[in-house]
Amino acid sequence: MSSQPAAPTAEAVRPPHGPLLVVMLGLVTAIGPLSLDMYLPALPAIADDLTVAPTEVQLSLTTCLIGLALGQLVCGPLSDRWGRRRPMLAGVGAYAILSVLCALAPTAPLLAGFRLLQGFAGGVGVVVARAIVRDLYSGVEAAKFFSRLTLIFGVAPIAAPLLGSALLKVTSWPGIFVTLGVIAALLTALLAARIPETLPVGRRSPGGLGDTARAARTLITDRGYVGYTLAQSFAFAALFGYISGSSFVFQDGYGVSPTLFSVLFGVNACALIALSQANGRLLDRVAPRGLLLAALVTQALAGLAVLAGAVSGSLAALAAGLFVVVGAIGMVMPNATALALDGHPGRAGTAAAVMGGIQSVTAALAAPLAGLGDPGLGVPMGLAVLGFAVLALLSMLLLTGRAGRA
Q1: What's the CATH number for 19-400?
Q2: Higher pLDDT, 130 or 374
Q3: Most buried of 161, 181, 186, 286 (most Cβ within 10 A)?
Protein backbone atom coordinates (compact mmCIF):
# COMPACT_ATOMS: atom_id res chain seq x y z
CA MET A 1 0.00 0.00 0.00
CA SER A 2 1.67 3.20 -1.18
CA SER A 3 2.12 6.07 1.22
CA GLN A 4 3.12 8.62 -1.40
CA PRO A 5 0.89 11.38 -2.79
CA ALA A 6 -0.52 10.64 -6.22
CA ALA A 7 1.85 12.00 -8.82
CA PRO A 8 0.73 15.25 -10.46
CA THR A 9 0.21 15.28 -14.19
CA ALA A 10 0.92 18.04 -16.65
CA GLU A 11 -2.79 18.39 -17.38
CA ALA A 12 -3.92 18.76 -13.78
CA VAL A 13 -4.05 22.08 -12.01
CA ARG A 14 -2.86 21.41 -8.51
CA PRO A 15 -5.19 22.81 -5.87
CA PRO A 16 -3.77 24.65 -2.88
CA HIS A 17 -2.19 22.18 -0.47
CA GLY A 18 -2.40 22.90 3.21
CA PRO A 19 -5.02 24.57 5.39
CA LEU A 20 -7.09 26.11 2.57
CA LEU A 21 -7.62 22.80 0.79
CA VAL A 22 -8.49 21.08 4.08
CA VAL A 23 -10.96 23.84 4.96
CA MET A 24 -12.68 23.83 1.56
CA LEU A 25 -13.06 20.07 1.29
CA GLY A 26 -13.78 19.76 5.01
CA LEU A 27 -16.66 22.23 4.78
CA VAL A 28 -18.12 20.36 1.81
CA THR A 29 -17.82 17.07 3.69
CA ALA A 30 -19.46 18.72 6.71
CA ILE A 31 -22.65 19.30 4.71
CA GLY A 32 -23.85 15.91 5.93
CA PRO A 33 -23.53 16.53 9.68
CA LEU A 34 -24.74 20.13 9.29
CA SER A 35 -27.86 18.90 7.49
CA LEU A 36 -28.55 16.30 10.15
CA ASP A 37 -27.42 17.96 13.38
CA MET A 38 -28.31 21.63 13.20
CA TYR A 39 -32.04 21.06 13.49
CA LEU A 40 -31.89 18.27 16.09
CA PRO A 41 -32.77 20.61 18.99
CA ALA A 42 -35.80 21.73 16.97
CA LEU A 43 -37.27 18.27 16.29
CA PRO A 44 -39.79 18.39 19.16
CA ALA A 45 -40.75 21.96 18.17
CA ILE A 46 -41.21 20.96 14.52
CA ALA A 47 -43.45 18.07 15.57
CA ASP A 48 -45.55 20.44 17.66
CA ASP A 49 -45.68 23.15 14.99
CA LEU A 50 -46.71 20.75 12.23
CA THR A 51 -48.97 18.82 14.63
CA VAL A 52 -47.48 15.42 13.81
CA ALA A 53 -45.97 12.55 15.78
CA PRO A 54 -42.19 12.57 16.45
CA THR A 55 -41.71 9.65 14.06
CA GLU A 56 -43.07 11.74 11.17
CA VAL A 57 -40.49 14.44 11.85
CA GLN A 58 -37.75 11.82 12.17
CA LEU A 59 -38.72 10.73 8.65
CA SER A 60 -37.12 13.94 7.38
CA LEU A 61 -33.80 12.63 8.75
CA THR A 62 -34.28 9.41 6.81
CA THR A 63 -35.23 11.13 3.55
CA CYS A 64 -32.22 13.45 3.85
CA LEU A 65 -29.94 10.41 4.19
CA ILE A 66 -31.60 8.72 1.22
CA GLY A 67 -31.01 11.89 -0.78
CA LEU A 68 -27.36 11.93 0.30
CA ALA A 69 -27.06 8.34 -0.94
CA LEU A 70 -28.71 9.03 -4.30
CA GLY A 71 -26.69 12.18 -4.88
CA GLN A 72 -23.46 10.29 -4.35
CA LEU A 73 -24.48 7.26 -6.42
CA VAL A 74 -25.61 9.36 -9.37
CA CYS A 75 -22.97 12.07 -9.41
CA GLY A 76 -19.87 10.22 -8.22
CA PRO A 77 -19.58 8.28 -11.51
CA LEU A 78 -20.45 11.43 -13.45
CA SER A 79 -17.51 13.21 -11.83
CA ASP A 80 -15.25 10.48 -13.26
CA ARG A 81 -16.55 11.53 -16.68
CA TRP A 82 -17.07 15.30 -16.37
CA GLY A 83 -14.40 16.20 -13.82
CA ARG A 84 -14.73 17.33 -10.21
CA ARG A 85 -15.20 21.10 -10.23
CA ARG A 86 -18.50 21.55 -12.08
CA PRO A 87 -20.48 18.85 -10.22
CA MET A 88 -19.24 20.15 -6.86
CA LEU A 89 -20.27 23.74 -7.61
CA ALA A 90 -23.67 22.63 -8.94
CA GLY A 91 -24.36 20.43 -5.93
CA VAL A 92 -23.43 22.93 -3.23
CA GLY A 93 -25.26 25.75 -5.05
CA ALA A 94 -28.44 23.67 -5.37
CA TYR A 95 -28.16 22.75 -1.69
CA ALA A 96 -28.39 26.45 -0.80
CA ILE A 97 -31.64 26.87 -2.74
CA LEU A 98 -33.24 23.70 -1.41
CA SER A 99 -32.41 24.67 2.18
CA VAL A 100 -34.64 27.73 1.77
CA LEU A 101 -37.42 25.53 0.35
CA CYS A 102 -37.17 23.35 3.48
CA ALA A 103 -37.73 26.48 5.57
CA LEU A 104 -40.93 27.18 3.64
CA ALA A 105 -42.38 23.66 3.97
CA PRO A 106 -45.89 23.89 5.51
CA THR A 107 -46.36 20.16 6.21
CA ALA A 108 -44.28 17.21 7.37
CA PRO A 109 -44.56 15.33 4.04
CA LEU A 110 -43.38 18.39 2.10
CA LEU A 111 -40.53 18.89 4.56
CA ALA A 112 -39.50 15.25 4.06
CA GLY A 113 -39.66 15.70 0.28
CA PHE A 114 -37.56 18.85 0.26
CA ARG A 115 -35.09 17.18 2.60
CA LEU A 116 -34.75 14.35 0.07
CA LEU A 117 -33.77 16.85 -2.63
CA GLN A 118 -31.57 18.81 -0.21
CA GLY A 119 -29.75 15.61 0.68
CA PHE A 120 -29.29 14.76 -3.01
CA ALA A 121 -27.62 18.10 -3.66
CA GLY A 122 -25.44 17.77 -0.58
CA GLY A 123 -24.40 14.26 -1.58
CA VAL A 124 -22.91 15.59 -4.81
CA GLY A 125 -20.41 17.74 -2.94
CA VAL A 126 -19.59 15.03 -0.39
CA VAL A 127 -18.72 12.38 -2.98
CA VAL A 128 -16.69 14.76 -5.14
CA ALA A 129 -14.69 15.91 -2.12
CA ARG A 130 -13.68 12.30 -1.39
CA ALA A 131 -12.76 11.75 -5.03
CA ILE A 132 -10.58 14.87 -5.04
CA VAL A 133 -8.61 13.52 -2.08
CA ARG A 134 -8.07 10.23 -3.95
CA ASP A 135 -7.01 12.19 -7.05
CA LEU A 136 -4.22 13.74 -5.01
CA TYR A 137 -3.23 11.13 -2.41
CA SER A 138 -3.06 7.39 -1.80
CA GLY A 139 -2.32 4.97 1.02
CA VAL A 140 -1.23 6.33 4.38
CA GLU A 141 -1.10 9.89 3.02
CA ALA A 142 -4.77 9.62 2.01
CA ALA A 143 -5.67 8.29 5.47
CA LYS A 144 -3.82 11.23 7.06
CA PHE A 145 -5.66 13.73 4.85
CA PHE A 146 -9.01 12.12 5.63
CA SER A 147 -8.09 12.46 9.33
CA ARG A 148 -7.64 16.20 8.83
CA LEU A 149 -11.01 16.39 7.07
CA THR A 150 -12.54 14.53 10.00
CA LEU A 151 -11.44 17.42 12.22
CA ILE A 152 -13.91 19.69 10.45
CA PHE A 153 -16.40 16.83 10.19
CA GLY A 154 -16.14 16.62 13.98
CA VAL A 155 -16.40 20.36 14.61
CA ALA A 156 -19.67 20.46 12.64
CA PRO A 157 -21.60 18.27 15.12
CA ILE A 158 -20.36 20.50 17.95
CA ALA A 159 -21.25 23.77 16.28
CA ALA A 160 -24.43 22.65 14.51
CA PRO A 161 -26.73 21.80 17.45
CA LEU A 162 -25.34 24.70 19.50
CA LEU A 163 -26.03 27.06 16.60
CA GLY A 164 -29.44 25.48 16.10
CA SER A 165 -30.26 25.92 19.79
CA ALA A 166 -29.09 29.54 19.68
CA LEU A 167 -31.17 30.23 16.59
CA LEU A 168 -34.27 28.81 18.28
CA LYS A 169 -33.94 31.54 20.91
CA VAL A 170 -34.28 34.29 18.30
CA THR A 171 -36.30 32.62 15.56
CA SER A 172 -38.43 29.57 14.80
CA TRP A 173 -37.22 26.33 13.21
CA PRO A 174 -37.38 27.60 9.58
CA GLY A 175 -34.58 30.01 10.47
CA ILE A 176 -32.27 27.02 10.90
CA PHE A 177 -32.76 26.01 7.27
CA VAL A 178 -32.31 29.59 6.06
CA THR A 179 -28.98 29.63 7.89
CA LEU A 180 -27.96 26.40 6.18
CA GLY A 181 -28.79 28.04 2.85
CA VAL A 182 -26.63 31.06 3.62
CA ILE A 183 -23.70 28.85 4.67
CA ALA A 184 -23.97 26.84 1.44
CA ALA A 185 -24.17 30.00 -0.69
CA LEU A 186 -20.99 31.38 0.89
CA LEU A 187 -19.25 28.03 0.44
CA THR A 188 -20.25 27.96 -3.24
CA ALA A 189 -18.63 31.36 -3.72
CA LEU A 190 -15.41 30.20 -2.02
CA LEU A 191 -15.23 27.03 -4.13
CA ALA A 192 -15.89 28.96 -7.33
CA ALA A 193 -12.99 31.26 -6.52
CA ARG A 194 -10.40 28.78 -5.24
CA ILE A 195 -11.00 25.12 -6.18
CA PRO A 196 -9.58 24.13 -9.58
CA GLU A 197 -10.09 20.91 -11.51
CA THR A 198 -8.13 17.91 -10.14
CA LEU A 199 -9.09 15.28 -12.73
CA PRO A 200 -7.45 16.07 -16.09
CA VAL A 201 -9.26 15.20 -19.31
CA GLY A 202 -6.81 12.41 -20.09
CA ARG A 203 -7.77 10.54 -16.88
CA ARG A 204 -11.52 10.87 -17.26
CA SER A 205 -13.83 7.97 -18.02
CA PRO A 206 -15.33 8.21 -21.52
CA GLY A 207 -17.95 5.53 -20.88
CA GLY A 208 -21.66 5.88 -20.25
CA LEU A 209 -24.05 4.07 -17.93
CA GLY A 210 -22.86 0.65 -19.07
CA ASP A 211 -19.28 1.49 -18.20
CA THR A 212 -20.40 2.79 -14.82
CA ALA A 213 -22.36 -0.40 -14.17
CA ARG A 214 -19.31 -2.51 -15.00
CA ALA A 215 -17.17 -0.44 -12.65
CA ALA A 216 -19.74 -0.82 -9.86
CA ARG A 217 -19.84 -4.59 -10.47
CA THR A 218 -16.06 -4.72 -10.12
CA LEU A 219 -16.29 -2.85 -6.82
CA ILE A 220 -18.92 -5.05 -5.24
CA THR A 221 -16.96 -8.19 -6.12
CA ASP A 222 -13.88 -6.86 -4.30
CA ARG A 223 -14.18 -8.39 -0.81
CA GLY A 224 -11.76 -5.89 0.70
CA TYR A 225 -13.64 -2.89 -0.71
CA VAL A 226 -17.00 -4.30 0.39
CA GLY A 227 -15.73 -5.20 3.85
CA TYR A 228 -14.24 -1.80 4.57
CA THR A 229 -17.26 -0.04 3.07
CA LEU A 230 -19.73 -2.04 5.18
CA ALA A 231 -17.59 -1.57 8.30
CA GLN A 232 -17.68 2.18 7.84
CA SER A 233 -21.37 2.17 6.89
CA PHE A 234 -22.54 0.15 9.89
CA ALA A 235 -20.33 2.18 12.25
CA PHE A 236 -21.88 5.35 10.86
CA ALA A 237 -25.34 3.80 11.26
CA ALA A 238 -24.54 3.24 14.94
CA LEU A 239 -23.68 6.94 15.16
CA PHE A 240 -26.88 7.85 13.32
CA GLY A 241 -28.97 5.73 15.66
CA TYR A 242 -27.71 8.07 18.37
CA ILE A 243 -28.24 11.18 16.23
CA SER A 244 -31.83 10.36 15.30
CA GLY A 245 -32.98 9.23 18.72
CA SER A 246 -30.99 11.28 21.21
CA SER A 247 -32.99 14.52 21.13
CA PHE A 248 -36.17 12.72 22.21
CA VAL A 249 -34.39 10.44 24.69
CA PHE A 250 -32.43 13.19 26.43
CA GLN A 251 -35.07 15.94 26.32
CA ASP A 252 -38.26 13.91 26.83
CA GLY A 253 -36.96 10.83 28.64
CA TYR A 254 -34.45 12.47 30.99
CA GLY A 255 -35.79 16.05 31.05
CA VAL A 256 -32.62 17.61 29.60
CA SER A 257 -33.05 21.16 28.25
CA PRO A 258 -32.35 21.92 24.54
CA THR A 259 -29.26 23.90 25.51
CA LEU A 260 -27.83 21.17 27.75
CA PHE A 261 -28.61 18.60 25.06
CA SER A 262 -26.59 20.65 22.60
CA VAL A 263 -23.70 20.80 25.08
CA LEU A 264 -23.79 17.01 25.59
CA PHE A 265 -23.91 16.53 21.83
CA GLY A 266 -20.92 18.82 21.42
CA VAL A 267 -18.92 17.04 24.13
CA ASN A 268 -19.41 13.76 22.27
CA ALA A 269 -18.22 15.37 19.05
CA CYS A 270 -15.07 16.50 20.90
CA ALA A 271 -14.22 12.82 21.30
CA LEU A 272 -14.56 12.35 17.55
CA ILE A 273 -12.21 15.28 16.91
CA ALA A 274 -9.62 14.05 19.41
CA LEU A 275 -9.55 10.52 18.00
CA SER A 276 -9.38 11.71 14.38
CA GLN A 277 -6.34 13.85 15.13
CA ALA A 278 -4.70 11.11 17.20
CA ASN A 279 -5.33 8.82 14.23
CA GLY A 280 -3.27 11.05 11.95
CA ARG A 281 -0.30 10.82 14.30
CA LEU A 282 -0.67 7.10 15.01
CA LEU A 283 -0.54 6.33 11.28
CA ASP A 284 3.21 6.96 11.41
CA ARG A 285 3.55 3.85 13.59
CA VAL A 286 0.42 1.71 13.10
CA ALA A 287 -1.16 0.55 9.84
CA PRO A 288 -4.64 1.91 9.00
CA ARG A 289 -6.12 -1.60 9.26
CA GLY A 290 -4.90 -2.05 12.83
CA LEU A 291 -6.30 1.31 13.91
CA LEU A 292 -9.62 0.54 12.23
CA LEU A 293 -9.95 -2.81 13.98
CA ALA A 294 -9.20 -1.27 17.38
CA ALA A 295 -11.81 1.45 16.80
CA LEU A 296 -14.50 -1.05 15.77
CA VAL A 297 -13.89 -3.26 18.81
CA THR A 298 -14.07 -0.20 21.06
CA GLN A 299 -17.29 1.01 19.48
CA ALA A 300 -18.97 -2.39 19.91
CA LEU A 301 -18.05 -2.52 23.60
CA ALA A 302 -19.29 1.05 24.06
CA GLY A 303 -22.57 0.11 22.34
CA LEU A 304 -23.07 -2.54 24.99
CA ALA A 305 -22.53 0.13 27.66
CA VAL A 306 -25.11 2.38 25.97
CA LEU A 307 -27.76 -0.34 26.07
CA ALA A 308 -26.94 -1.16 29.70
CA GLY A 309 -27.28 2.52 30.65
CA ALA A 310 -30.64 2.79 28.89
CA VAL A 311 -32.01 -0.38 30.51
CA SER A 312 -30.94 0.82 33.97
CA GLY A 313 -32.16 4.38 33.35
CA SER A 314 -28.75 5.82 34.16
CA LEU A 315 -28.16 9.09 32.29
CA ALA A 316 -24.46 9.07 33.29
CA ALA A 317 -23.85 5.55 31.93
CA LEU A 318 -25.82 6.29 28.78
CA ALA A 319 -23.88 9.51 28.12
CA ALA A 320 -20.51 7.85 28.82
CA GLY A 321 -21.21 5.00 26.40
CA LEU A 322 -22.33 7.39 23.67
CA PHE A 323 -19.18 9.48 24.21
CA VAL A 324 -17.05 6.47 23.25
CA VAL A 325 -19.35 5.37 20.39
CA VAL A 326 -19.07 8.80 18.77
CA GLY A 327 -15.34 9.11 19.45
CA ALA A 328 -14.58 5.82 17.71
CA ILE A 329 -15.92 7.28 14.46
CA GLY A 330 -12.87 9.57 14.45
CA MET A 331 -10.72 6.54 13.66
CA VAL A 332 -13.23 4.51 11.67
CA MET A 333 -14.03 7.09 8.97
CA PRO A 334 -10.54 8.08 7.73
CA ASN A 335 -9.03 4.59 7.85
CA ALA A 336 -11.98 2.72 6.32
CA THR A 337 -12.32 5.33 3.56
CA ALA A 338 -8.63 5.22 2.66
CA LEU A 339 -8.51 1.40 2.74
CA ALA A 340 -11.60 1.04 0.56
CA LEU A 341 -10.60 3.63 -2.07
CA ASP A 342 -6.91 2.74 -2.26
CA GLY A 343 -7.36 -0.16 -4.65
CA HIS A 344 -9.43 1.82 -7.17
CA PRO A 345 -7.54 4.99 -8.17
CA GLY A 346 -8.89 4.94 -11.73
CA ARG A 347 -12.50 5.00 -10.51
CA ALA A 348 -12.24 7.20 -7.44
CA GLY A 349 -15.56 8.94 -8.12
CA THR A 350 -17.47 5.71 -8.62
CA ALA A 351 -15.78 4.02 -5.66
CA ALA A 352 -16.55 6.99 -3.41
CA ALA A 353 -20.12 7.07 -4.74
CA VAL A 354 -20.84 3.42 -3.99
CA MET A 355 -19.26 3.78 -0.56
CA GLY A 356 -21.21 6.93 0.25
CA GLY A 357 -24.44 5.50 -1.10
CA ILE A 358 -24.17 2.34 0.96
CA GLN A 359 -23.25 4.40 4.02
CA SER A 360 -26.24 6.71 3.66
CA VAL A 361 -28.76 3.95 2.96
CA THR A 362 -27.48 1.91 5.91
CA ALA A 363 -27.66 4.94 8.19
CA ALA A 364 -31.17 5.65 6.95
CA LEU A 365 -32.25 2.33 8.46
CA ALA A 366 -31.05 3.51 11.86
CA ALA A 367 -33.60 6.31 12.23
CA PRO A 368 -36.77 4.17 12.17
CA LEU A 369 -35.08 1.45 14.23
CA ALA A 370 -33.96 3.90 16.90
CA GLY A 371 -37.47 5.35 16.92
CA LEU A 372 -39.40 2.10 17.27
CA GLY A 373 -41.94 2.33 20.06
CA ASP A 374 -41.65 4.86 22.85
CA PRO A 375 -38.15 6.42 22.94
CA GLY A 376 -38.43 6.36 26.74
CA LEU A 377 -35.03 6.16 28.41
CA GLY A 378 -33.27 5.07 25.24
CA VAL A 379 -33.63 1.29 24.95
CA PRO A 380 -34.62 1.33 21.22
CA MET A 381 -31.74 3.73 20.53
CA GLY A 382 -29.34 1.54 22.53
CA LEU A 383 -30.36 -1.58 20.65
CA ALA A 384 -29.80 0.17 17.31
CA VAL A 385 -26.39 1.52 18.35
CA LEU A 386 -25.18 -1.85 19.64
CA GLY A 387 -26.55 -3.84 16.71
CA PHE A 388 -24.93 -1.68 14.06
CA ALA A 389 -21.62 -1.50 15.94
CA VAL A 390 -21.46 -5.30 16.08
CA LEU A 391 -22.30 -5.56 12.36
CA ALA A 392 -19.48 -3.12 11.58
CA LEU A 393 -16.94 -5.25 13.42
CA LEU A 394 -18.19 -8.48 11.82
CA SER A 395 -18.06 -6.93 8.34
CA MET A 396 -14.37 -6.20 8.68
CA LEU A 397 -13.45 -9.49 10.30
CA LEU A 398 -15.40 -11.72 7.92
CA LEU A 399 -14.88 -9.91 4.59
CA THR A 400 -11.47 -8.29 4.63
CA GLY A 401 -9.54 -11.13 6.28
CA ARG A 402 -5.94 -11.04 7.32
CA ALA A 403 -4.89 -10.38 3.78
CA GLY A 404 -6.86 -7.13 3.65
CA ARG A 405 -5.01 -4.10 2.39
CA ALA A 406 -2.88 -2.57 5.15
Answers
A1: 1.20.1250.20
A2: 130
A3: 161
